[in-house]
Specification:
single chain; 191 residues; mainly alpha
Length: 191
C-alpha cells in the first residue's frame, strides 16, 4: 500500500494547525507561561516548527535544515537544538528572543519546502529505515544525552512512520496542549 498520499494529507494538516495557532496567538501570549512548570507558549509552537524541519530535512532528506540556512539562522537559540532535550532556560530564551511573526514566516517557507520534497520522494524510499546517528553526524548537539534520550526510540523505524510520528502525531499533541493552555490563560484574563 502506498502511504504517501495519506502522509501528504497529514503533513499538510500539521502546517495548517501551526499556521492557525501562530495567527491566533498574540505576541503577549507567545511569552506566557500558562502554569508553573509549563513551557512558554512560544517555545512549544517554535518546537513544533523546528521538529518538522529537523525530521524532514536533516533526517529524511539528509539535507541542512532551513534553520541552518542564513535566512533562518536567527531561529536557532543556543542550547535549544530543535526543542528535544532543551533546558528550561534555553526553552524560555526561544519564546523571548524569537518573535511569533518570524516563526510564522518560517512555517510558510518550511511548508513549501517539505511538501515539495514529499511530492517527489519515491514511495519505496519511505519504507527504508531511519538512521538517526548517520543523519546527526554533522550536528553533535543532536547526539547529546538529553536530546538522544528523547529520540532513540525513533532510530531504525521506517521513514514513513518517522514522518508520521514527529511531524504529525507530535504536532497534534502539542497543538492540543497549546490550545488548551491559551484558553485557560484567556479565561483567567477575562475573569
Amino acid at each position: 500500500m502506498d502511504v504517501k498520499p495519506l502522509l501528504q494529507f497529514l503533513l499538510t494538516g500539521s502546517f495548517k494547525l501551526l499556521t492557525e495557532v501562530l495567527e491566533g496567538t498574540t505576541d503577549e501570549e507567545w511569552k506566557v507561561r500558562p502554569f508553573s512548570g509549563a513551557n512558554l507558549v512560544g517555545f512549544t509552537i517554535w518546537h513544533c516548527a523546528r521538529t518538522i524541519d529537523w525530521a524532514v530535512n536533516r533526517v529524511l532528506r539528509g539535507s541542512p535544515e532551513l534553520a541552518d540556512l542564513a535566512e533562518w539562522r536567527d531561529l536557532n537559540v543556543a542550547g535549544a537544538v530543535f526543542g528535544a532535550g532543551a533546558s528550561r532556560e534555553a526553552a524560555d530564551r526561544v519564546a523571548l528572543e524569537v518573535p511569533r511573526t518570524r516563526v510564522l514566516g518560517y512555517v510558510n517557507a518550511l511548508r513549501e519546502d517539505a511538501l515539495s520534497w514529499l511530492a517527489t520522494v519515491p514511495p519505496e524510499e519511505l519504507s527504508a529505515a531511519t538512521d538517526l546517528k548517520a543523519s546527526h553526524a554533522k550536528k553533535a548537539e543532536y547526539m547529546a544525552a538529553p536530546v538522544w534520550a528523547e529520540l532513540e526510540d525513533l532510530d531504525g523505524i521506517p521513514k514513513w512512520q518517522f514522518l508520521a510520528r514527529p511531524c504529525v502525531s507530535h504536532i497534534r499533541v502539542h497543538y492540543g496542549e497549546v490550545r488548551s493552555q491559551l484558553e485557560a490563560v484567556r479565561a483567567a484574563a477575562s475573569s
